[in-house]
Amino acid sequence: MGLSEEEGGKYWDKEAKSYNEEVEKHRNRYYELVECIIDLMNPKKTDVIMEIGAGTGAVSLLLAPKVKKIIAVDISKEMLRIAKEKAAKAGVDNIEFVRGTFHKPNIAEKVDIIVTIDSLHCTTNGNYKKRAIEIMHGYLKNEGKVFLEDEMIVYDQKILKRRVDQIVRYLVKLTRKSDKEFRDVLFEERPNIHDLKEFFDESMSYYIKGMAKTGHHLKLEDLVRYFEDSGFEVKETKRASSTNGIIYARKTKNA
């Protein structure tokens, strides 16, 4: 998306209600993410976690019973309002809600763990992201940890092209053998193989070229380098999906 902080606040205020509806539809995803966070971070009951880009609180609410306190930071007042309502309804009282950003979290204490889900890619460019990671370092206690899950370019371009070509060849073969009912369900009309090939080529071109050229989508290896340059040891990386990756990093020194 690549919005400025001011633009981002206004945008997410407008989108908060529909965003929360989507979150509720896909609750299983957040349960899975929290399981991954717990497995990698091993949070203690004495820990304080800051979630940056907390949205309407899906992750913070699930993590809250595991730790002493959650500080849920978000740029949107409306997102935070919904998150507070959900916390009150669930009887969760150890979440502090703060309006802030990656560059200005607006908290007065250092934390044990920082979590950020699907948020850093919304910021403007690589320089903003690099500075955001440096600021995370400053808000962590010694040997504090970061869990980042976000949109990023996780595929090598040559591998991606080869896989897309394999998919196209498979679909060409599949649709030639499919009955009309299958075609109608899958494509809503009789598929044109040439149109299908063009669609995949355009999609691949966007992923490889479009995402890379926008400053707000970075390669996994670029983000890893930003962490390492900022005084972190990257302990683990994972490909969460075709467009999302996970980075687990630990603070090792003063930047």
UniProtKB/TrEMBL annotation:
Task: Name it.
Answer: Methyltransferase domain-containing protein
* Molecular functions (GO terms): methyltransferase activity
Task: Please indicate if the UniProt record lists Transferase as a keyword.
Answer: yes
Any GO BP: methylation
Query: What superkingdom heads the lineage?
Result: Bacteria
Domain Methyltransferase stretches:
49-144
Query: Which keywords are on file for this protein?
Result: Methyltransferase, Transferase
- Per the UniProt record, the source organism is candidate division TA06 bacterium DG_78
